[in-house]
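Example A, followed by Example B.
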Amino acid sequence: MVLNKIFYFQFFTLLYLFTITFALTEEATALLKWKATFKNRNNFLLALWTSSSNACSDWYGVTCFNGSVA
């Protein structure tokens, strides 16, 4: 019984973390698509807006709240 509770706790914790990561990836992808529509894509303020950087900590002008882009 105790093992079942531990398993469920771990399972739902991992599911929650995966959901947050997936949502953030979707939001970052949407922002990158939006950036691609800009006439001046080489703006130095947006230079770190890449798929290999962290949207919450590296992207200028992007703020995150509870793991989601705000």
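Example B, a separate protein, is given below in the same form.
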Amino acid sequence: MLTISGIELYTKIGISEEERKGKREIDVDVSIDADKFVDLKEVYNLIRDTVESSSYTFIEDIGKKLLSILADRYTPNSLTVRVRKPHPPIGGKVDYIECKLVYQCKGKA
């Protein structure tokens, strides 16, 4: 299992138009268990390009998109994607909100 942790990126994200006016920090962790070689620089570049090239309403949208792209590209045995939005504007002091998505190849345990 290979993990890249704490990828700090910036994108337009949020439910309200006000939230999406500027880019906000998004942090990503990815763990990949694959039978073939995985170029971690390529994984980082795919994540960066995916997150920074679009705007999103929910962090779940980012997670689903990353999970799909990485699963198609690397056909892993398993894949975990975590997406965090630090200090979300929800009316109180919060470190972050997080979405965790897991892909498990059928037939693999």
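On Example B: The chain has one domain: 2-104.
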